[in-house]
């Protein structure tokens, strides 16, 4: 563990402090200054910074007009206590990014949905949020962009209901949840009348989903099914029936062949296929975003 030498006392003893603790003190100090002097602050982007709940409390008390906050990857010192301070004091929030915060749980998500009804963008990827938190998301009737990838314990039924209650959903990432299956995703697409981007890599997607999805949507443009057990037949059916499709991600779909991809590229030039050819390490029609860390246009620092 990196340490920083602070001082030597009169007895010749030296005091050491872990460097991460020093960094968190510095960032908390910055947030304290901001909270005291920037009362009309609307956007705070602190992703990958070592923060603590103390710093978030300073922002919550001093910046009640906050509209956007990004705390993703801010470390283990950010817990429900800090997030609750933000939600209770900043009711006008529209965008919240809480990715990779393992100590932010259902408690934060439930309160967030109660106190901030105008939320349009929510990212909970790899956080401590589970089933109750996902169920609470149905209260966000203005929600447009949602990332609930890699969340332990969420159920297909709860995910399937999201587009029922959040009619404005446009972009959704449910990747790395292997319990999410064809039936769940078909419900998401069926009732997601504005949904144009769906990421479901490493979910339980089969050719059944591929054969049915085109019948249920005329808005879906971008679909990522990397690491899923689909075959050439499924890709052919999807390409032929989903008229709105413009991008299809197929990374590590081992049952899909290069010959089929060559065929489909020629037949459906409007669709950009991302598929690695093992013999030629290139990507067909390279997309603008990549799985797993890029999530649509909102995954920015």
Explain this structure.
A hairpin with a 5-residue loop joins strand 1 and strand 2. Helix content is 35%, strand content 14%. The N terminus and C terminus are likely disordered. The longest helix is centred in the first third of the chain and has 19 residues. The relative contact order is 0.07. The chain has eleven helices and twelve strands. It has 301 residues and is of the alpha/beta class. Helix 1 runs parallel beside helix 2. The strands form two sheets. Strands 3-4-5-6-7-8-9-10-11-12 form a ten-stranded parallel sheet, with no helix packed on it. A two-stranded antiparallel sheet has the order 1-2.
Mean pLDDT: 88
Discrete helix count: 11
Which sequence of SSEs, written as H and E, runs from N to C? EEHEHEHEHEHEHHEHEHEHEHE
Strand proportion, as a percent range, falls in: 5-15%
What is the CA-atom radius of gyration, in angstroms? 22 Å
- Helix percent band: 25-40%
Task: Give the distance, in angstroms, between the N- and C-terminal Cα atoms.
Answer: 27 Å
């Amino acid at each position: 563990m990196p340490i920083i030498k602070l001082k030597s006392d009169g007895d010749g003893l030296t005091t050491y402090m872990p460097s991460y603790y020093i960094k968190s003190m510095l960032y908390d100090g910055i947030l304290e200054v901001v909270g005291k002097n920037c009362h009309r602050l609307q956007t705070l982007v602190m992703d990958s910074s070592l923060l603590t709940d103390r710093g978030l409390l300073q922002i919550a008390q001093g910046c009640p007009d906050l509209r956007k906050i990004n705390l993703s990857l801010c470390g283990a010192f950010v817990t429900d206590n800090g997030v609750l301070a933000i939600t209770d004091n900043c009711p006008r929030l529209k965008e919240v990014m809480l990715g990779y915060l393992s100590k932010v749980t259902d408690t934060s998500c439930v309160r967030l949905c109660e106190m901030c009804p105008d939320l349009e963008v929510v990212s909970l990827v790899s956080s401590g949020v589970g089933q109750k938190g996902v169920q609470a998301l149905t209260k966000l009737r203005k929600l447009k962009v949602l990332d609930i990838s890699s969340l332990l314990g969420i159920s297909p039924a709860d995910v399937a209901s999201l587009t029922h209650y959040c009619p404005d959903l446009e972009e959704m990432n449910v990747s790395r949840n292997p319990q999410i299956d064809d039936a769940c995703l078909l419900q998401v697409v069926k009732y997601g009348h504005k949904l144009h981007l769906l990421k479901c890599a490493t979910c339980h997607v089969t050719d059944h989903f591929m054969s049915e999805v085109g019948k249920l949507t005329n808005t879906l443009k971008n679909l990522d099914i990397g690491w899923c057990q689909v075959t050439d037949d499924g890709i052919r059916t999807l390409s032929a029936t989903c008229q709105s499709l413009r991008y299809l991600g197929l990374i590590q779909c081992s049952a899909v062949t290069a010959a089929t991809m060559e065929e489909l590229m020629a037949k459906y030039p409007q669709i950009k296929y991302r598929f690695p050819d093992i013999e030629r390490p290139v990507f067909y029609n390279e997309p603008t975003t990549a799985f797993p860390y890029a999530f649509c246009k909102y995954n920015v620092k």
